[in-house]
Amino acid sequence: MAFNDDSFIREVNEELRSDQMKGVWRRFGRYIVVVAILIVVGTAGKVLYDYWDDNRSSGTGDQFLAAMKLADENKNDEALAALDKLEKEGHGAYPVLARMRAATVQVQKGDTVAAIAAFNEIGKDNAVPAAVRDAAKMRAGWLLIENGTYEEVSAAIEEMAVPGNAFRHSAREALGLAAYKAGNMAQARQWFQSIVDDTDSPRNVANRAHMMLDLITASGKAPAAQG
């Protein structure tokens, strides 16, 4: 499904103006998460590509591409078997890439619990490069928005929501959405405001943050700070 971020935000704002607040999150919450996670996947993909490009190992490259093809064809069990073999027998970057891809295949299968556990395990493995660990933590954090608590999301990714971290924009957005979903509007406002206040925030992330701040203000549960 393709998303137009600007038109989506305009549609939510129209709902706000028509005073249909109660249904806004119920109607749009899942789509807000889906639209936002595209950036996470894109950023994580670049990190993984850079890692692969720096550690090419032609001996197992064809096997990895074959496993990817199986996953793309939704032959998930076959893909997982091929990726498990690569994790155990592959060279260079491929064992780590196989672990990341296998966790993604678990999401495709609908086994979110297994996927979160796999991403968390990668995120805690000091043998894995730091950039890849961060990518794994972000994937776990975003899955936990719909499948865990705010505290679990925070434990996974809050350490990345700091100036200078490449994933800070995605981390702040995930934390804001998790707080909003938990009904903690004051905490959600703080995270979304931190996105708006960061002049380096990507435009579409900042636009969504503004939209969420409007939702929070309209809820009456965490009024805008008076300045």
UniProtKB/TrEMBL annotation:
Domain (Ancillary SecYEG translocon subunit/Cell division coordinator CpoB TPR): residue spans on this chain: 23-202
Pfam families: TPR_21
Keyword ATP-binding (UniProt): no
PANTHER family linked: ANCILLARY SECYEG TRANSLOCON SUBUNIT, UPF0070 PROTEIN YFGM
Record-given protein name: Ancillary SecYEG translocon subunit
Entries under Gene3D superfamilies matching the protein: Tetratricopeptide repeat domain
Keywords of this entry: Cell membrane, Chaperone, Membrane, Transmembrane, Transmembrane helix
Family: Belongs to the YfgM family.
Gene Ontology molecular function: any one: protein-containing complex binding
Subcellular location: Cell membrane
Chief location bin: membrane
Sequence intervals crossing the membrane: 28-49
One annotated Gene Ontology cellular component of this protein: plasma membrane
